[in-house]
Design a protein that fits this description.
single chain, about 325 residues, 6-stranded mixed β-sheet
């Protein structure tokens, strides 16, 4: 275990913040803090990074209590949403900057090391380019390389891809996961994007109102949500009440069949590209259904259907 948060709390003047945060992170893991705006994920990240001092609790990094250490004393690097690059420096100067304070290397040696990281993040040929002339994706690569070059024990990433377009976000998160495996570096990633969290995480920490509500592997959180909140936030869900209990049914786990005597009727149909989303009703209940592949466009509005439910969870 490389990091442990023990009963971390931080309450701000308006009453918001985090409460009783307990988390264990193993070396080499990529952990994602997932939740909506205001849930406490960035406050948790900033507490780990030393930018916020908790009201109580302790932060243990590699068996050392760092709770009250300033950020520059922690073996932690942070990649911010805004990139936070130095505008007066070119690419290689930005990347090598951290080595000036974390190593005994001379300037020429620092630049030689930085050249290796330029290549690692796919920016070879841009070494002398002014960072202001780079695209958002290229700037994010510079920010990542600058954080990685100091070889921190822990890398924190605060919604680093939120300023990128959808296609580039997918590419960057794939590259991030590849870098994480290559360096075997421990990362804590903050996002409100559940698809992003599911695709890159070794473990997801779902947060709500300053508290952790579920921790688990992506498949565990998706297939076995512990509450209606988790089921609704992580993926699409149908939540119905039966025998005073709530049942969670994922839209992709409903199989439709055309049936003139069926109890259900298709009341809406939305084309989503690689899948079709249908809304169906039996007159009392309404459900969302997702169809992909050959049956993507098989059904029409007002079709009568019967359904089979392949998998459901009770909470």
């Amino acid at each position: 275990m490389i990091l442990e948060l023990k009963n971390i709390s931080k309450v701000f003047s308006k009453g918001d913040g985090i409460s009783n945060i307990n988390l264990e992170v193993n070396e080499g893991e990529l952990i994602t803090l997932l939740g909506p705006s205001g849930c406490g994920k960035t406050t948790t990240l900033n507490t780990i990074g030393g930018f916020i001092i908790p009201d109580n609790g302790s932060i243990i990094l590699d068996n050392e209590d760092i709770t009250n250490q300033p950020p520059e004393k922690r073996s932690i690097s942070t990649v911010f949403q805004s990139y936070a690059l130095f505008p007066h420096m070119n690419v290689i100067e930005n990347i090598s900057y951290g080595l000036k304070y974390t190593s005994s290397l001379k300037k020429k040696q620092r630049l030689e090391v930085a050249e290796q990281y330029v290549e690692l993040v796919g920016l070879k040929g841009y070494e002398r380019e002014h960072v202001g002339r780079l695209s958002g994706g290229q700037q994010q690569r510079v920010s990542l390389a600058r954080a990685l070059i100091t070889r921190p024990k822990l890398l924190l990433l605060d919604e680093p891809f939120s300023n990128l377009d959808a296609k580039l976000r997918v590419k960057m998160r794939e590259e991030l996961k590849e870098l994480q495996r290559k360096f075997n570096i421990t990362m804590i990633f903050v996002t409100h994007d559940q698809e992003e969290a599911l695709s890159i995480s070794d473990k997801i920490v779902v947060m709500d109102k300053g508290k952790i509500v579920q921790i688990g592997k992506p498949s565990q959180v998706y297939l076995n949500p512990v509450s209606e909140y988790v089921a609704s936030f992580v993926g699409m869900s149908n939540i119905i009440e039966e025998d005073s209990k709530k049942k969670i049914i994922r839209p992709e786990n409903i199989i439709m069949k055309k049936d003139n005597n069926g109890e259900w009727e298709i009341i809406n149909k939305i084309f989503m590209g690689h899948y079709m989303k249908y809304n169906i009703s039996d007159g009392c209940k309404s459900l969302e259904v997702i169809c992909s592949g050959i049956k993507n466009n098989y059904y029409n509005l007002n079709d009568k259907i019967s359904i089979d439910i392949e998998l459901s969870n009770t909470i």
